[in-house]
């Protein structure tokens, strides 16, 4: 089940998708973006940044664009009974901060290296 996080214009959705592609893992960024066939629905996986010691990337979480309806950015419902990791809600808060950065940014240089997962977890 998805929880609606933001409602955006089509122009904002297209800009966010373009930013996620620009800052994709293959381009040295943190995003993996997948489209759902011929639709305009996208699944975006947010990964950690590679650390100074070349640590492997680890998924922070997933958000969805246009899955619920056009212009809607959604997240998986939080289920405290399902999430075995105490910091799971911290990951949701981090995803929300990343989405907010994408919405607010007009393509200046996005830098996710200093974002930290809430509850004192390590930086992205």
Automatic annotation (TrEMBL):
Name used for this protein in its record: Uncharacterized protein
Domain of life: Bacteria
């Amino acid at each position: 089940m998805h929880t609606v996080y933001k409602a955006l214009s089509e122009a904002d959705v297209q800009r966010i998708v373009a930013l996620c592609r620009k800052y994709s893992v293959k381009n040295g960024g943190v995003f993996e973006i997948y489209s759902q066939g011929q639709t305009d629905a996208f699944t975006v996986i947010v990964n950690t940044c590679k650390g100074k010691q070349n640590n492997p990337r680890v998924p922070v979480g997933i958000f969805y664009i246009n899955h619920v309806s056009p212009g809607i950015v959604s997240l998986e419902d939080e289920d405290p009974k399902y999430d075995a990791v105490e910091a799971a809600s911290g990951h949701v808060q981090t995803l929300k901060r990343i989405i907010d950065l994408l919405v607010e940014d007009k393509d200046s240089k996005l830098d996710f290296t200093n974002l930290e997962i809430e509850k004192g977890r390590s930086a992205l």
